[in-house]
Amino acid sequence: xxxxxxxxxxxxxxxxxxxxxxxxxxxxxxxxxxxxxxxxxxxxxxxxxxxxxxxxxxxxxxxxxxxxxxxxxxxxxxxxxxxxxxxxxxxxxxxxxxxxxxxxxxxxxxxxxxxxxxxxxxxxxxxxxxxxxxxxxxxxxxxxxxxxxxxxxxxxxxxxxxxxxxxxxxxxxxxxxxxxxxxxxxxxxxxxxxxxxxxxxxxxxxxxxxxxxxxxxxxxxxxxxxxxxxxxxxxxxxxxxxxxxxxxxxxxxxxxxxxxxxxxxxxxxxxxxxxxxxxxxxxxxxxx
Length: 288
What we know:
Blueprint: E1 2-6, H1 11-22, E2 27-31, H2 34-41, E3 47-51, H3 57-64, E4 67-72, H4 78-91, E5 99-103, H5 115-130, E6 134-139, H6 150-156, E7 158-161, H7 173-185, E8 193-196, H8 204-215, E9 220-223, H9 226-235, H10 240-254, H11 264-269, H12 276-282
Parallel strand pairs: 1-2, 1-4, 2-3, 4-5, 5-6, 6-8, 7-9
Protein name: NAD-dependent epimerase/dehydratase family protein
InterPro entries: Ergot_Alk_Oxidoreductase (IPR051604), NAD(P)-bd_dom_sf (IPR036291), NmrA-like (IPR008030)
Pfam families: NmrA (PF05368)
């Protein structure tokens, strides 16, 4: 049977699609922008790009007929959160679907300071209430998030934020996708929440120490007030809702919610997660 991927053109979803095709799986990518998806993937054997009205339960139902497993990689709030809930609700009514695997976030909990974490917890509760066959991967903050510092680092050798303490074991999004592919395709891993972290927790100032070593120049962390940080985000063109998520993320980091590691990635894949130092070396040009 075919695997459906919703959120197929994002960082993790696109890696999932490519990984499935490499395994010889048939993949239906349910997307809003079919032309954009074709530009990303081309038209390889095994891939069906289906333009889908993800906010229309009847169209989602039609798209999921005959599907065995689903991978969902979308945001948790706003319209994307609504679309996730529609997809899960529809999946619960289709008998052929044996498993829904969803990209969530570390510390998904109603008690988290993070808006994203609380929203993901709400989606998990919906899946539980509907008794849909269900698993999640819950990664720490992506190493990719550091690329947001690129412009400021290039201009001033500083990066501004709220969380001058508190640590996160940042994880490479490619590792997240590798683990997600295993969870999606190996029934022994179904029905569980898999917490994924990078190898070592670091604070933002400590991450910049690693970047300084890579660049051979000192890059420092500048602590902002909340109004100043919000103004910087808005002036950078970040939508207000996303800015709110980022501020709440900083509060969660400061509170120490992310200051731990797990061995889940090692257990799932048989190897260690990628190091932050290697990511910074790979993306050196973004900061130099």
